[in-house]
Amino acid sequence: IKHLVWLRNDLRWADNPALYHASQQGYIAVLFTITETQWQEHKESDAKTGLRFGLMRSLCKSLAGLGIPVHFIIEDRFSALPNAIHDFCIKHQIQHLWFNEELPTHERKRDQAVHSQLTQNNIACHIEDADLIVAKPVFSQQQTPFKVFTPYFKRWLDLLSQQDPTPLPAPEPQSTPLPETTLPAHPDHSHREDLWPADQTIARQKLWQFCHHKEKHYHEDRDYPAQPATSTLSPYLALGALGPRQCLEAIHYTCRQEDKPWQDSVWLKELAWRDFYRQLMVHFPSLSKGCPFKPETNALNWRHNQAEIDAWQQGKTGFPIVDAAMRQLNQTGWMHNRLRMITASFFCKLMFADWRHGEAYFMSKLIDGEYAANNGGWQWSASTGCDAAPYFRVFNPIRQSETYDKQGEFIRRFVPELTALDNKSIHNPTTQQRQDCQYPMPILDYKPARAAAIAAFDALKGLK
Ligand code: FAD
């Protein structure tokens, strides 16, 4: 072998630039690196690691079919990889290492270290773009990064319209099929295989079905958690079983069928948020170190009430929509976007708990946990972030519930003790109903909690 392709969070054979371009150069092999301690340190959830291993297993099968051999390196942490990959390349006389760029801080450091160790030893590194829809830097006219989404999105669309949207094909078979490489033994991790089968072909089918049937209603239905109106593709995008440009291709196709400009797709705009938060991490590295985007919010004196935090984590706050949402997260590893906003706002504003604890809990449970999107979502909710919710915007969980889960359908799905309640009281049961249903009393009182949060932010103004 001359060319080695190192796959990480890009676990797909189609539209994989590193894999495709390497395959155009000659005979290739694929390398997976397993770094479980590092993943745990990143708080990667059991569900996400479970899906990761499942996708690797399914890739081993597909790659064997294409005659592409697969190798594994197992180390605890990223820091061991430069030596390990170097030794592997020497042993197998590899002259070129190919990989797709990853933007989070630790991943970038890892890749820089691998790059420098290999190039010093005359092994070339080829780095491709796979993870953003618009790979070029999206800068303002002053050549600075955008801090506000709307102008970023406008520029992003401009650049996108100049870009070839066609995703890359899978590599051609390079020999007759090989025996399938089995995954090395590893601790058990489980994810909801019924909801997210570990198979990129199924992920692509889900994408096309979504675009075919639901994309056109997305802008109206996406806020209602009882409806299957969003794509639920985030776990596949997080691990790269689907590439964002494959989503773009499906959007182009669907919009053409419906005779509407692809630029108007509201779903595309959500994918632009994904790009936006990713590029922020690169331009503002302090975001990856637990710092708020707005430094003045460091002066906020967050409360730490462990009993409230426990109740929130377990879905026992006594606010049915919050509890249903947290139980959805705990049971499936995924939570609807509207509910992520409601539960995060509840945590940071009403409980006035430090958003970093909420962020970490989400990460430890989410099957789609991604540093950039999760940090972006939490800082948005806590009003500490870039282009965040204004600080006086404090979601009222009962109003949100009445608006977005009018019939209590979603609540009934995840809080079965409330199933028998009528559509009105299910959003905020009476004391008697709570006792009858063995459902907890609310852990806090909305009005004073809201007022206290706003007062704490108001007090910051003097510090600016
Ligand atoms: P769809 O509505 O179908 O959107 C399509 C894709 O666009 C998603 O799969 C996702 O990749 C991307 N996307 C959508 N909304 C956003 C957004 N606001 N920011 C960034 N990307 C977005 N998303 C994650 O992928 N990982 C996270 O760890 C994560 N944590 C979040 C934490 C909080 C507090 C909040 C408010 C949001 C978070 N999000 C996160 C964003 C969003 O909630 C999820 O991407 C979305 O719910 C996934 O469901 P879907 O695939 O059905 O999304």
UniProtKB/TrEMBL annotation:
Family: Belongs to the DNA photolyase class-1 family. Belongs to the DNA photolyase family.
Residues with site note (Electron transfer via tryptophanyl radical): W302, W355, W378
Function, in words: Involved in repair of UV radiation-induced DNA damage. Catalyzes the light-dependent monomerization (300-600 nm) of cyclobutyl pyrimidine dimers (in cis-syn configuration), which are formed between adjacent bases on the same DNA strand upon exposure to ultraviolet radiation.
NCBIfam families reported for this sequence: PRK10674.1
Cofactor binding, per record: Binds 1 FAD per subunit.
Source organism phylogeny: Bacteria, Pseudomonadati, Pseudomonadota, Gammaproteobacteria, Oceanospirillales
The protein's required cofactors: FAD; (6R)-5,10-methylene-5,6,7,8-tetrahydrofolate
Documented EC number(s): 4.1.99.3
Alphabetical GO biological process terms: photoreactive repair; response to light stimulus
Gene3D superfamilies given in the database record: 1.25.40.80, DNA Cyclobutane Dipyrimidine Photolyase, subunit A, domain 3, HUPs
Sorted UniProt keywords: Chromophore, FAD, Flavoprotein, Lyase
SUPFAM superfamilies attached to this UniProt entry: Cryptochrome/photolyase FAD-binding domain, Cryptochrome/photolyase, N-terminal domain
Feature: compositional bias, Pro residues: 166-176
Name used for this protein in its record: Deoxyribodipyrimidine photo-lyase
Species the sequence originates in: Marinomonas posidonica (strain CECT 7376 / NCIMB 14433 / IVIA-Po-181)
Entry-linked InterPro entries: Crypto/Photolyase_FAD-like_sf, Crypto/Photolyase_N_sf, Cryptochr/Photolyase_FAD-bd, Cryptochrome/DNA_photolyase_1, DNA_photolyase_1_CS_C, DNA_photolyase_N, Rossmann-like_a/b/a_fold
Reactions accelerated catalytically: cyclobutadipyrimidine (in DNA) = 2 pyrimidine residues (in DNA)
